[in-house]
Amino acid sequence: MINIVLFGKPGAGKGTQAEFLKKRYNLVHLSTGDIFRFNIKNETELGKLAKSYMDKGDLVPDALTIKMLEESVDNNLGADGFLYDGFPRTLAQAEELDKFLASKNSKIAATIALEADDEILIHRLLERGKTSGRSDDQDEEKIRHRYQEYNEKTAPLMEYYKAQNKFYPVNGIGSIADITERLSTIINNL
Prior knowledge:
It is built from nine helices and five strands. By secondary structure, the chain is of the alpha/beta class. Strands 2-3-1-4-5 form a five-stranded parallel beta sheet, sandwiched between helices. The protein is globular, with a radius of gyration of 16 Å. The two termini are 12 Å apart.
């Protein structure tokens, strides 16, 4: 089983790339955003709580995120592997994910970070917000707040995974196909 974390700021292309990678490597794509939206749409208690944080541009608390993610993994235990998209976002989440995977006799093989300039990403999100209906993609101030949250809480994960020799930065600018090939080169060499 291969477990890959796809890392990057909102708008970096994690969801787009995950679609290609899950097909190419037969992975189950676990997007915390999709898991949150499913729970919000179905008005679960977890979904209502997640929405209250997302509407402010804040990260959903670790305990809530982990509970939803664990349920998704447990529902796909026969998978060849998992592609974690948008999780972990904090050091505490990374440590909890490691513990959870160890309980399943598994571990993270690689963390791949899609990197791009903030201004390019803000433009991408504002464009996406025109059609997605997502309130957190329609307000530049909320987007910048999300990036501040990312820098404060998520960027330290780079050091955590670098210390384990599992961190791979990838240029997230270019054609979708070019970026997919950059990601595939890393995965093929794991």
